[in-house]
Amino acid sequence: MQGPLVGKNAIAQSCVEALAQEGKHCFYFLLQTQQTNRVFTFIAYQLATKCLSITDTFDCQILNDSTILNAARSVQFEELLVKPLRQVTS
Prior knowledge:
By secondary structure, this protein is an all-alpha fold. The chain has helices at residues 7-21, 39-50, 52-64, 73-89. The chain folds into two domains: 1-30, no CATH class; 33-89, no CATH class. The longest helix has 17 residues, at 73-89.
């Protein structure tokens, strides 16, 4: 039998598991300082794997401009999250 979960990672994992039991999708990740340039690409990838309606939008965004993957975080945020999510919710 496992002992009680402790720490930020364990708490996040418990929250994800509880929400999954309710049929809600979510994810968590640990971000190390050297990985901050990948945060929005990671979130976009996670969204694409969980929400098929947005996958085509991401594919088009990246195929039209693959430099987005190495762009500044502000550009990645706008191009990989804000614009695609607006298209799906419109």
